[in-house]
Amino acid sequence: MHTPRRSRRTVAALTGSAVLALLATACTGTNSGGGQDDSASGKDVTITFWHGWSQDNETKAINDNVAAFEKLHPNIHVKVVANIADDKSEQALRAGGSDAPDVVSSFTTDNVGKFCSSKVWTDLTPFLKKDGVDPAKTFPAAMLKYSQFQGNQCSLPLLGDAYGLYYNKTAFAAAGITAPPKTFSEFEADAVKLTIADGEGYKQLGFMPTYHGYESVPAHFLGQYGATYFGEDGRSNIASDPRVAAMYTWQKGLVAKLGGFEKLEKYRTGFGDEFSSKNPFHTGQVAMSIDGEWRTASLAEEKPAFEWATAPFPVPDDQAATYGRGYQTGTIIGIARTSQKQAAAWELVKYLTTNTDAVVSFANAIHNVPSTIEALGSPKLDADPNFKTFLDIARNPDSSTTPASINGGAYQVSMQNLGYEFESGKQTDLQAGLANTAKEIDAAVNQAK
Amino acid sequence: MALHSSVLLRRKHRRETARTLAFLSPWLIGFGVFFAYPLVSTVYFSFMKYDGFTAPVFTGLKNWDYVFNHYPFFWQGLRNTLWLVVVMVALRVVFGLGIGLLITKLRTGTGFFRTAFYLPYLAPPVAATMAFAFLLNPGTGPVNHLLGDLGLPQPGWFTDPSWSKPALTMLAMWGVGDLMVIFMAALLDVPKEQYEAAELDGAGPWQRFRYVTFPNISPIVMFAVVTGVIQTMQYYTQAIVAGKVASGVIGGSGQQFEPGYPHGSTWTLPQMVYSLGFQRFDTGSACVVALVLFAISMAFTSLLLRRGAGFVSNED
């Protein structure tokens, strides 16, 4: 049997193990790269490229592009590793070592601020200058914005995503609606008309406005307002930009008009996985949704039992002239600071991000928006009318993105949390909530400096 | 002669010390590598700005100030963690002991029930949590369908802040097989003659449990409580998976995953260590939270062992 003293010792050891389990990986050293290789003089170099794509058509598309690159650069060999989540590549970049990647892509542009400020990814400006690539003339403005942080161009866009409206044409016809809405007042009226009650729930909901309704999140709605997040002094300005308060108020009003928060949330829990055929738009559970261009491919493939179409997401009534805009994001690609083969790595990054044929063929293969100005206008681009909606959004000068921040997307988490509190009625004073959230964002940014 | 003898004694003493250290060395090395070094490092980095990539810079109490005064989730996470420690550990111990008692009393089917209650423990935590999220889905889950058919209220479970922690506790009780096996072994070790003597003295079932069973198994109960507290202080996987599945948020640009869904009700301190250290690259603040976790673990276990000194029977 345990005596108390022995037990205490055992407990101390167990507690120590607990702490170890939490912290064992937290304390690693640092190393720096920046090494040049001899790839320019024709010497054989092998670089490693990690990316997050996993589906067969996606990995085939990227492998095809890499093969074309290797044909152009016979001395540069690329070891491609697919299906790498951001968390995993971050830890590999921390650890460095011979197996760490040279070239890394990430689906989350929110990471750019972290990667650039902590110099995890190397600044590409010297490479761009050396090869005469002018980023402002090469990449659309919103895409360029999300791939840099405070002048450090540590990543480049590698295909983009644009957000627009998907609508069920069959349901529209049944409700007597002849065209997609362009303003929020039209959108609200249509959403109400398209909502068909079924006892305590819905047979069909016009639109799912709650912030857990997949892509119905503050950042995507704020894109329609052209709202700003930070002032010129770098401090959060969400409490002073009236467009932010307008968005929260509009969303809450829509929640109320469509049945209230609790009823909507209960309906939402019956939705299937977002990236499956059980997506509520595919199943007809919602008649309209905000989503990215990739949905065109899955809808075309799955052929739901109704007609559908796309349009830009509506805009606030007082900004009707900006109709056609949308939120934009995308995949980014960069070079690990620890890479000892940065010259070869840059050749691959340059090819994948600026070679028009490479960008267009990749965009056609995986149905993402091309990330260069030239590729967006390429005649080789597959552009059926539904996909063209998103190409136009990407080209629209009013389209916007979420800015890079030193601590990644932490400010968006704060804004989402405010959204959850406000839509559910836990927070009733919006202005006070915005002021507190701004303070919270500033404290987090200050902590990361 | 005396000098010679004292030299010999010193040599003997040194030899004994060296031998003792040699025998202790595996533990000493383990203690140093797996306990002392991480603990000292954690204290060191809690005073540094360190992102894991660039050299650490001393920032004094900045991380401590941020975690306690500005990090919006800390106090809620602390409250959640303590709630889970108190409620989940207590219910797991009571439930595990109850199942163990029932099965040891069975005359037939012991093997079947033992297996049936032990099997869920073997399920990987992620799979078990996803299965529970499916069963407890407020809109489509069979549990709420059944409750509805019976005319009973249908909770929001993982989507309702007042039900999310009870739902996690139910999941923990479902996987109580490990405790059940330990309690069964202890219960079967209780000398039968003590029960016979108690029965002859006219003791009823409760008195037999109170005065015979419990004193015999009290060290095992203490073991279960102490290990349960330590495990629950590290509670991470189930809380984060349940939150992620129920929230429907996949994550991605403009759409951040919100740990603690709904309304921060499932945030725990270990999630904060991960979130601060590995998502925000704020290793310093992560170390502060880890040290808080360590201090609370030590306080809980010391308190339990001191208070439990009279509660645990040491007859043997």
TrEMBL record, chain A:
GO cellular component: cell envelope
InterPro entries: Bact_solute-bd_prot1, SBP
Range of residues in the leader sequence: 1-26
Domain of life: Bacteria
Keyword Signal (UniProt): yes
Gene3D superfamilies: Periplasmic binding protein-like II
Record key words, sorted: Signal, Transport
Subcellular location: Cell envelope
Pfam families reported in the protein's UniProt record: SBP_bac_1
Function: Part of a binding-protein-dependent transport system for a sugar.
Family assignment from sequence similarity: Belongs to the bacterial solute-binding protein 1 family.
Name this protein carries in UniProt: Probable sugar-binding periplasmic protein
Organism in which the protein naturally occurs: Kitasatospora atroaurantiaca
Source species taxonomy: Bacteria, Bacillati, Actinomycetota, Actinomycetes, Kitasatosporales
From TrEMBL, chain B:
Similarity field: Belongs to the binding-protein-dependent transport system permease family.
InterPro entries assigned to the protein according to its UniProt record, in alphabetical order: ABC_transporter_permease, MetI-like, MetI-like_sf
GO cellular component: plasma membrane
Protein name: Carbohydrate ABC transporter membrane protein 1 (CUT1 family)
Places the protein is found: Cell membrane
Keyword Transmembrane helix included in the entry's annotation: yes
Organism: Kitasatospora atroaurantiaca
Transmembrane segments: 21-40, 82-104, 116-136, 167-188, 209-230, 283-305
GO terms classed as biological process: transmembrane transport
Keywords assigned by UniProt, alphabetized: Cell membrane, Membrane, Transmembrane, Transmembrane helix, Transport
Ranges where the ABC transmembrane type-1 domain occurs: 78-304
Tagged with keyword ATP-binding: no
Topology with respect to the bilayer: Multi-pass membrane protein
A Pfam family annotated for this UniProt entry: BPD_transp_1
CDD domains: TM_PBP2
